[in-house]
Amino acid sequence: MIFEEMAHNDYEQLVFCYDEVSGLKAIICIHDTTLGPALGGARMWNYETEEEAITDVLRLAKGMTYKNAAAGLNLGGGKTVIIGDAKKDKSEAFFRSLGRYINSLGGRYITAEDVNTTVQDMDLIYQETPYVCGISESYGSGGDPSPKTALGVYMAMKRTAKEAFGDDSLKGKTVAVQGVGNVAYTMCGLLHEEGAELIVTDINQEAVDRAVEDYGATAVGLDEIYGVEADIFAPCALGGILNDDTIPQMKVKAICGSANNQLQDDVKHSEMLAEKGIVYAPDYVVNSGGVVNVADELEGYDEERAVKKVKEIYNQMDKIFTIAKEDDISTAEAADRLAESRINQIMRVRSTFSLNEKNQFKKG
Ligand SMILES: NC(=O)c1ccc[n+]([C@@H]2O[C@H](COP(=O)([O-])OP(=O)(O)OC[C@H]3O[C@@H](n4cnc5c(N)ncnc54)[C@H](O)[C@@H]3O)[C@@H](O)[C@H]2O)c1
Ligand SMILES: CC(C)C[C@H](N)C(=O)O
User: Fold this and answer.
1) Looking at the domain assignment, is residue 359 inside a domain?
2) Is 358 a catalytic residue?
3) What is the ipTM of this complex?
C-alpha cells in the first residue's frame, strides 16, 4: 500500500528512523529532487497512529516540492515528522540522533524548523550534520525563519489586495487574523504600521492580549473570526479551515495567511471561494518566506539578499493571478501549474549530457 501511494504521487524515498537510547521515532520523506536536494522542516507531533504520521509526512513532503518550486528555489521537497510530545520527549540525544539519520542521506535531504521544533533543536541537529538550516545566528545563519515568513505574507497580502480592491495599499483595510503566534504577531506589526485595522483570535489569551495592547487589535471569539466584517481573512494557525462550514460565513473579499493546507479540499473549496467572489492567495506561495530565508543559508547567509528574495513573493503572486486569469482556473490550481511547469522545464534542461565528477573526461 505504501509503495502504491509512492508510485501514484512520484515519491522517491521514505526513511524510518528509530533510536532506542533517546526514544526517537521519526520518518523522513523525500518527495522529489528534480530541482535539487529536498528541503523541508521537521515537525514534532503526538500522532495517534503510525499511519497518521506516514500520511502526514507524505502530504507535507509533496507540499514542499510545490512550495520550493513555486518560490524559484533550486530545491526539491521533503519533510520529517517526529512522533512524540514536544513538551516531554525532546533531549540532546533525541535531536543528535535525528541529525545522524539526516547525515546518512548524504545531502539528499536538508531539514529546518516546522511545527513544534525550534532554532535550539536545529542547533543540536547541526552537531551531527551540515544538512540543516534555521540554526542560530551565531553560526552566521538566519535563525528563526518566522519574521521572514511574516514579511512574505505581508507582501503577498499587498498583491492580493490589489487584485481584490484595485490598490495594494492596506491602509484602512480591516484584516481578521486567526492565530497570533510567531508569524502573525510580526505580520500584525507590519499591517499596523501601514494603517490597517486588526481583528484577532487565538486559543492563547496572552497572544490575543499582546496584539490588542501593541497594535490596538479588536479581540473576537474563536468561531466568530470566520464571519466578522472585514476586508481580508488571514488564517495563521491551522490547516483545513476553508471548508463547507466556514466559507458560507465569510464576508471578506480576500484570503491571505500563513497557515499550511488551508483548503480542506483543494478543488471544491477553491471553487466555493471563487463563487463567492473571494480572492484566494495560495497558502504555499504566501508562506514561502521562511523557506526562502533558510535556503539562503546554503549560499552563506546574507540577510539583505534574503529579504530581497522574500519580497519577490509579491511578483510570484502577480504571476499566479495572471495564470489564473489567462487559463481560467482557480488561483490554487494556477500555483500548482507554475510549480509543475518549472519542475518539468528544469527536468528537460537537465536531460542534456554534461560531465560530472563520476563521468570525467579522459584523454587517450
Ligand atoms: N513559522 C514559519 O516560518 C512558518 C512558515 C510557513 C508556514 N507556517 C505556518 O504558519 C502557521 C503559524 O506558524 P507559527 O510559526 O506562527 O506558529 P505558532 O505556533 O507560533 O502560532 C500559531 C498560533 O495559532 C494559535 N492557535 C492554535 N489553534 C488555534 C485555533 N483553533 N484558533 C485560533 N488560534 C489557534 C496558537 O495558540 C498560536 O498562537 C502554521 O500553520 C505554520 O505551519 C509557519
Ligand atoms: C524549511 C522551513 C522553514 C519550512 C516551513 N516550516 C514551511 O512550512 O514552509
Assistant:
1) no
2) no
3) 0.98
